[in-house]
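tool_call: predict_structure(chain=1)
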Amino acid sequence: MRRLIAAICLISASAAYAGAQKYEQLSTSVQAALHKAVSDSRPSVSSFKSSIEAADWLGEMSRRLEKRIPNRDYRIDLLRSVHYEATRAGLDPQLVLGLMQVESGFRKYAVSSAGARGYMQVMPFWVKLIGLPENSLFDLRTNLRYGCTILRHYLDIEKGDLYRALGRYNGSLGKPEYPNMVRAAWLNQWGYENPARLAQAGR
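tool_result:
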């Protein structure tokens, strides 16, 4: 049964513009830090500063994502997880949504020709390198945890240069197409201004 499901996933859920992170030798300290980052349990706290901020952001992002993910409960769970994992990694949640749109088209079971998996198209070698054997890259939170941790790692390597970090993430370092597509999706589809902040600015 599992083989049948995997075959269906490969046929019907191909990624939108997925590439593949390249395997690179990590120092022992970096490997340990990344392992800790993907292994930490999720605390029972919100990544939002207030319930009002949560309601505003989730409501707006849910509206934009509705056509791609019709199930409201699952859509809200996905968005909460994106916000949490992105914030935890020091990333803009809207940037992560833009990356997901370009990488997988928000397909949970997307598989690229190189074997990258899930929403954020994470390469399986990462599980062996920094994770645990039981980690499934088709699990919502696991995929987001790995994806955000890896993008943060690439940003650190590139000293904050998002263009180059995105190139590394997609396995297309030095080529403009992918970073430009993610940036366009981030700003045009998922750009967001906090209503409370706008109201304060207008006073």
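agent: Residues 2-15 have pLDDT under 50 and may be disordered. Proceeding to next step.
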